């Protein structure tokens, strides 16, 4: 019988350094991006006729005019389009812009609330964005497409926990999901959050007046849908938070 050889322990300095992934994006976010890309490719298949494309957009885009007529006198598109519109995009610039912001703001939210709540958040924030848009443009026959409302909802949710040093702690960006959740009042007392919200509102105000700083300026931007999504995420995030925490009412001011 061979003698058992004790395990060898390499000195710490001789161990190879652990690899740090270049892109630390949760799988559910990669799946979201993959779905958006697949849908965009399907939208732009070269053999679609104009009639097919018209059917595609009519069937899956959000149209405010649908809700100005009795639902019993039309098809069931009113049932799913408040969500499916968020999967459609009108151009490469449109999907790239939304995809980049999705990776930035969805990652900490997804890490914190988990896959199931993330999917529910997507569905409900898309609907909230769509119906505020419908309220502003009641009876309008224009099409609403794009994930911008959902991205805005994720931005609003991130304001409740993801910004650094909200309560005196300084988690690394990849650990932002570990921050305590701020109450709505405490969020509005945080200079970091307020500064971000002011800049976000200013950007949307410029969009409302037809001035687009970034993104696809060739297409109209539904600034009202952005506001609907942001308010949903900011005001209702606590309903999705899977790690109930004592909400921070008075965050410590950052060190000077």
Automatic annotation (TrEMBL):
It is found in: Membrane. It comes from the Bacteria. Coiled coil: none annotated. Pfam families: Rhomboid. It is a multi-pass membrane protein. GO terms for biological process: proteolysis. Keywords: Cell inner membrane, Cell membrane, Hydrolase, Membrane, Protease, Transmembrane, Transmembrane helix. Its EC number is 3.4.21.-. The keyword Membrane applies. GO terms for molecular function: peptidase activity. Residues 79-237 form the Peptidase S54 rhomboid domain. The chain crosses the membrane at residues 20-42, 83-106, 118-138, 144-163, 193-215, 221-240. This is Rhomboid family intramembrane serine protease. It comes from Rhizobium calliandrae.
